[in-house]
Protein 1
Amino acid sequence: MALQHNHNLLAARTTILQSEAMEVTANLRPNPSLFTDWDYLPLFTPSSMNTTYLHDSSEADLGLSYLIERGRKRERRYQAAKDVTAVTRTQVADNERTLSYQVATLFTNIQFAESTIELAQQDLKSFQQTVEIAESQFKAGGISENDYLKIELQLLQFETDLEQAQLAREQDLSDLRQMLGYESVPTDYDVADSFDYLPLTANLEDLQMKALQNRPDLRAAQQGVTAANSSYLLAKADGKQDVTVTGNYTHVNGINGASFYVSVPLAIFNRNQGEIARTRSVITQTQEQQAATNGQVMTDVKDAYEGLKSNDRVVLLYKNRYLDVAVRGRDIADYAYHRGAISLLDFLDAERSYRATELGYRQSLASYLLALEQLREAVGIRNLP
């Protein structure tokens, strides 16, 4: 939806059309020039204005001139314009890659917020029951007022967690709507997908190879070198002097005549030396930029891959061990509390540890999914192994 409706991307795509229009302009031939004149008309002696005078004493000229471009200028201009269009098209593709990453990031953030809301609602409901039990015990003299107030104050944290998660969800939904194209989705829309662990099996070398093949910013850098070479060839072609050919028909003193002219500038001072030197330097510049982009692509994939593997290890720690430990600890504390083996504060401490572990797992899972999206952006493809 974002690739179809995002206004910034739609605006960027018009640059391709603009560049294609420049190709048309670059491929145009020079227009011929038509000129005419009629000299020695007796405007201040109208009595002399007669057929004989006009035929024998006035002069009329009609001519046509055309500029012949040398050095294959039109071909060089057209090729340079096409190379610029190729770079522009690839840059727009890179904008699409960035937009896809931004949309996926917001999508994951909304999933995390909704997961946190679900956990916060469960915790709040459970703790409200605990507060009610504590209130009954306080009134019956089972616990002190100080212990009861400590328990009641802990309710604030649960209510705050719920409010923060709801605020994050609403803000991320609003930001995502802007990314998708504000008018393309209704106000009360939502996202739906599994918020779960997705293992990655690819190795770093394969991912880096795919990135070198698919990253549009790297292709743009490579095409920039090609465009720089085209500009250099065009500058050399512009250094060639063009020839102007003129044909002229003249009627003067009753005689019809024809004249032909050829003119060409003498390349003594201006041979387009400055532009040739500049475009030669641009070639070196773009080559260095390509090398830098190539290294940046490898670095991006490396950093994203290592970040993903680190988050992967943390998620597996939760899944394989600590989630079960937290559940068992809470269940044991619940069992012991209801049988009078531990105090209410000890039970609440176990509940707090369980909640912190569950929230930590969701945060680690969100970090893992965000790292996965970062790796997709670094490689330049959505479908990773």
Protein 2
Amino acid sequence: MLSGRFPEEWLLSHDLIEGAYVRVGLASDIEIYDEFPRDYMSYASRQHRWIRGDWQIAEWILPRVPQPGGRRGPNPLSWFNRWKVFDNLRRSLMPVTSLGLLMAPG
């Protein structure tokens, strides 16, 4: 369903952008258990991958987004989906912001 919607090799597989394009519903009563990483390096690697994916879709908060072939076109996402992308970006900045505030002279 998403063939031809994004530039080739542009995005990691990302549930948020894919779900926004195909207009999936929200099911908040489903529980998925994911094993916590066994060490800090595994945790940091997973966080880096997730945050990198969030920043790859950052342009989808704008009115015009990348299209196949290098052109830009109108953003088909709703304002609510754009807000979800923005919120992921905001959350990705929280750890570095918290560290900065801890290190700031008081």
Protein 3
Amino acid sequence: MSITDPIADMLTVIRNAQRANKEKVDVPSSKIKESIVKIIKDSGYIVNYRRIEDGKQGVLRVYLRYSRSKDPMISGLKRVSTPGRRVYVDKEKIPYVYGGTGMAVLSTSKGILCDKDARLQKLGGEVLCYIW
């Protein structure tokens, strides 16, 4: 089975694991997925992640975070730019997700950045996903 959008697949696996109250989830690894997961970790939405070598492309093990009342920290993940419809924004039009309580992940000329870092560096780019 070929996957046409591996980023959307990763977001769906994380979303489904959170709904099932899983402690961790494994997704196939790539540099862009690892960058996105690093941003999610730095923003406090997940506990940690780890790259596991398996002799092929590797696996990202993502440890999910829950509140004290066992509610998931990630209430929503949305893929914005898809292989069939790329969404680009200028530095002045970087979206605020849920009034700034969520975040957008962008692919810029300086790498994968969250919306706050892209605004500070005055960079626009492709909007990969929203997290809230």
Protein 4
Amino acid sequence: MALGASAFRVQFGVIFRTMRLALIGIAIGAASSFALASLISAMLFNTAPTDPATFAGMIALLIVVALLAGYIPARRASRVNPLVALRGN
């Protein structure tokens, strides 16, 4: 913001970076769990290891958590006075 970025641009940048990392992690995790479904089938009760509703629900939950994890610091970063941030402690 000290270099001319708007509050929206700062928030968008933080959330974009957070979501990019989260989506990469979710994709790797979903592919790994789908591939290793036979190993975890003994731990599941009344659910198929590759149940699409369970996979979709967990992916949606992880995306919401990642959005919150990115939005809260982004909002805080966009509210900082640039002069105070440049001045330091």
